[in-house]
Amino acid sequence: MRSSTVQGSKRKTTPTSASIAKRIKTKHVSTDELSWKKVTKPREADLGTGLDGFLELEEIEDVDVVYEETDVGRVVHFQTKEYEPHAKGKTDKPGESSDVVKDSLDVDALPDPVAFDDTALLPAWSTFHLHPQLGRALYSKKYTTPTPIQAQALPLALKGKDVVGVAETGSGKTLAYGLPILHHLLTEAYSHPIPNSKTGRPVRALILAPTRELALQVSSHLNDCLNAVDIAEDGAAAEPPEDAKARKKGKGKAKAAAEGADTENKPKHPPLVSVAAIVGGMSAQKQKRILSRGVDVLVATPGRLWDIIQEDDELAMQIESLRFLVLDEADRMIETGHFAELDNILRLTLRKSDDEVIEPENGLEADEAEVEDSKEGVKAGELQTLVFSATLSKDLQKNLKRRSRGRRRKNEKPASTLDDLLLRLDFRDPTPAVVDISPAGGVVASLKESKIECLANSKDAYLYYFLLRYPGRTLVFLSAIDGIRRLLPLLELLGIPAFPLHSQLEQRQRLKNLDRFKSTPNAVLLATDIAARGLDIPAVDHVVHYQVPRTADTYVHRNGRTARAMRRGFSLLMCAPDERRVVRALMHSLGREEEEVAEMPVELYMLDKLKARIQLAREIDSVQHKAKKEKHERNWLREAADAMEIELDSDLASDDDDEGTTGPSKQKRKAAAAKTAALKAELKAMLAQPLVARGVSTRYITSGVHSIADDMVAGEYHETMVGLRKVEAGEDLVPAKVRKPKGKPKVKEEYEEWGGIEAED
Ligand SMILES: Nc1ncnc2c1ncn2[C@@H]1O[C@H](COP(=O)(O)OP(=O)(O)OP(=O)(O)O)[C@@H](O)[C@H]1O
Asked: Where is the DEAD-box RNA helicase Q domain positioned along the sequence (predicted)?
């Protein structure tokens, strides 16, 4: 049995209030200098509290706001209580820690060493000898076993190797690169405490992600691993925190309650390693404040980070001497229009002497010349590069490895922009390890795929059918924002809870909609491909490709929002006649045939009934849209007339609510409003009618071609579509065509070719 602990000095004795009082003086500071504290907000939606959609909340204590009357008017000062510099290591108030402590962390301020018996509690992880704090976090999350990508990438990254990791969506890649970084930084924090100065905490790890949501998610995921977890020190007594919490509530033994109370009374220490996200949609001032407080692991989107770097030489210098660089979803980052920013950031991470081409000596091929001294990874303190995605082409991996060994070859042309991007990375490791465990055809084993072939203008009806037939949390991907704007009111009129997610929404609204989607049962998220990559939304049951994705990679990543972490998932591809060619090409590039994807069965009789509802909803939407447009134009006209001091005709000048005006326009508006109300009433009545399958008698539930009573007895009664069996999506698929063996599958061939590179070069 192995029990691991880390060494560290203990906090010195708590100062008396008298000694504190002596050491306090007041100081005027700017808002940026205040020690803002992060307010923890639950990851789930907290609708009703008014906090949903906020990127981050911070609070501040012990600050007086002082107003000073000056010649230029009233000036606001923030006045804080400051501890005298000589009180090093004792900056926190008794029983309370603050961010000041985090900034002035030194040997005296280190928290008690944590212990965790990984051999007993997490045997499957014990070979990695992770920092005990990480062991506790994994244990508390019940991650009993590493996922395959974690099992393969962790030993390499912990050894200091550069790693290119390719594994299926939802397979735990975030921790595959996150754990080695956190392990290194936590170990270092105890063994080489950081100097007591604000500039003493440079950014050590930079994680670049393509979208804001993904960056925030990665940051929150890594922060979860750093938050102190209370676990009984004795392995035998330890239990998952959920059980411990339940027992603390009085359901268990008194001993456990006492243990819990004891832990709760201990002062909470600030994290030794801090993780923060810098993304668009947050105020620049706040971002600078976060950075000035000291961030060890910075998770960022390239665009916003480059904006800040341009104004912050200090940060630029820190990026030049990073210890870890991670590209998460590297292949997506070049699609977002931020390639230039990304390239600029990557330039900062290049070795200064690497600009020249180094040709191998003695006529040897570079790979041969360097292969021997390459096994150990990067040298101590050098930049370690980790690149992860679910889709990195084999060719790319091949070029990457060759380039990293052979340096840039004269006249070498990259095959693609992504190729180009990765070839710009300056791997310090002569032979970066490539761990590719992506499944053949890009299909996750727990995912069931299906398709529907239908006319483009019938897609609304098929989608509505799907949503009613298979209730669940559904993520619908559309290729254009216009499509989302059109579909959203339609679904709302039909009583389906739907939320939009696209780049033209404000960041606050984007997060709010994501929160609502997570917390509303059977909700629908109508999204563009900004939601295709990396988002780890719990329990997405279905993914619908309302429009066929443009590339095979997008298809794989969109599908990857469901069937995550070995859970079951379902995807539906809606294919119009003019999209079939794209589907064929898409499947082909995944090494598959279009016919392999199973057909989703549709009760056409039921579909026809839904078409009538859709038709009515469209009509209402069109009348409402017209009325809204006219109102907008009237308002514009009124404002323009006001500005030019022109008097408008009273009919035009009147508001809808104005009493007494009876001009022709007003009458037209009234008639339109009455029509909308009538149509809405009609739709309401239609929605209230049960949807009954053909051959089903609702009067006598035991008669008819299909007896409802039988379904009720079997517990398979469908609440919305009477007479249809209640099944999960995917349970009633029309079997896919069996694949004919056609020699070696494409992907396998590529893999074999890749495996032979060592010898070939
Ligand atoms: N060892 C583990 N055991 C159980 N669950 C895990 C483990 N590691 C990670 N997870 C969970 O699996 C889910 C997917 O992880 P993550 O988001 O890192 O996947 P990913 O491979 O990055 O996916 P994508 O390619 O879509 O970005 C997360 O909810 C995560 O908490």
From this structure: 123-151
b/e burial code for range 121-146 (CB count within 10 A of at least 16 → b): bbeebbebebbbbbbbbbbbeebeeb
CA of 536 to the centre of ligand 1 (A): 8
Asked if 107 and 193 touch (Cβ cutoff 8 Å), the reply is yes
pLDDT category, 541, cuts 50, 70, 90?
A: very high
CATH number at residue 457: 3.40.50.300
Q: Is residue 296 part of a domain?
A: yes
User: ipTM value of the model?
Assistant: 0.98
Torsion of CA 364, 365, 370, 372, to 10 degrees: -80
Structure tokens at 96: 């309370």
Domains identified in the chain, total number: 2
Whether 308 contacts 315, CB under 8 Å: yes
The candidate with the shortest Cα–Cα distance to 661, out of 647, 674, 651, 648, is: 651
Give, for ligand 1, the residue of 214, 536, 571 to mutate: max count of ligand atoms closer than 8 Å to Cβ: 536
Q: Is the CB of 210 under 6 A from ligand 1?
A: no
Ligand 1 centroid, distance to 221 Cα (angstroms): 10
Question: Where among 602, 637, 661 does a domain terminate?
Answer: 602
For residue 361, is it within any domain? no
Residue nearest to atom 31 of ligand 1 (CA): 172
Decide which of 577, 602, 627 is a domain's last residue. Answer: 602
Which of 537, 576, 572 is closest to 555 using CA atoms? 572
Read off the DSSP letter of residue 210: S
Nearest protein Cα to ligand 1, atom 3:
143
Ligand 1, atom 9, residue with closest C-alpha: 172
On whether residue 557 sits in a domain, the answer given is yes
pLDDT digits (tens, 9 = 90+) for 412-448: 555 555 667 777 788 888 888 889 888 877 778 899 9
Residue 143: give the domain boundaries.
118-229+272-349
> Measured in angstroms, how far is the CA atom of residue 439 from the centroid of ligand 1?
16
pTM of the full structure: 0.71
pLDDT in tens, 61-99: 667 776 777 766 666 666 665 543 333 333 333 333 333
Are 159 and 300 part of one and the same domain?
A: yes
Specify whether 339 is located in the same domain as 457: no
Q: In what order do the strands lie in the sheet with 205-208?
A: 275-278, 297-300, 205-208, 324-328, 384-389, 163-166, 433-436
